[in-house]
Amino acid sequence: xxxxxxxxxxxxxxxxxxxxxxxxxxxxxxxxxxxxxxxxxxxxxxxxxxxxxxxxxxxxxxxxxxxxxxxxxxxxxxxxxxxxxxxxxxxxxxxxxxxxxxxxxxxxxxxxxxxxxxxxxxxxxxxxxxxxxxxxxxxxxxxxxxxxxxxxxxxxxxxxxxxxxxxxxxxxxxxxxxxxxxxxxxxxxxxxxxxxxxxxxxxxxxxxxxxxxxxxxxxxxxxxxxxxxxxxxxxxxxxxxxxxxxxxxxxxxxxxx
Amino acid sequence: xxxxxxxxxxxxxx
Lengths: 257, 14
Prior knowledge:
The complex is a heterodimer. Chain A is mainly β. In chain A, 14% of the residues lie in helices and 45% in strands. In chain A, strands 6-2-3-4-19-18-17-11-15 form a 9-stranded antiparallel sheet. In chain A, strands 5-1-7-8-9 form a 5-stranded antiparallel sheet, covered by helices on one side. Chain A has a 4-stranded antiparallel sheet with strand order 14-13-12-16. The radius of gyration of chain A is 19 Å and the shape is globular. The interface between A and B is medium-sized, with 25 and 14 residues. Strand 10 of chain A pairs antiparallel with strand 1 of chain B, so a sheet runs across the interface.
């Protein structure tokens, strides 16, 4: 028996929005530790890794580890039927072929449930090595989304350069060039508005705009985003999910030809 | 996409 209840059901809706454009289908792995998902986009350029710890759920029961393969377009349809203020409960049997979603309104006067057929996915799991990154930048997530959107107008890829002074996003295209520099903030009233840079050595890497823009669909999850960069390894873009989880996107760099 | 590397180049199958 698997049962997970999240009072703040809007978190699950936001998680769905954060992955549905990138992935067509994905396996949700459930264990006593919580819910995890790892999947590559269709072109195998990026990888999504989602972790929601059991401690973040109001109720969490998972008697046996199980994997639930879901079509994300179908899941999206179901989660769109939940209001932002609804509590969401997921339920499945031990060897399930369906999963049930129950949405309860705040006053409990409206209860709806939907069941969805699961699919068998033969997804390969990738081992993500522990990496000490040369630069780790934390910045407001809305700012990152705006920069990616603004610069995408000018070219297909963005170069991210990081020094101890700050981070620079650059684009070059047919009509010209664009640069956005963010300095490390000295002191800000709100932690959510800070830009911080932890740098071992400077880095400059180039990434496809298209994927960066997909990742920014996670912006509603968290006010801050963390970018981890090292030469010649994938970029990690991380958004926290409340206090109990995260969504990490790994993006392979573009290489010089 | 021109010059785009695959994520599989960096992460091995577990």
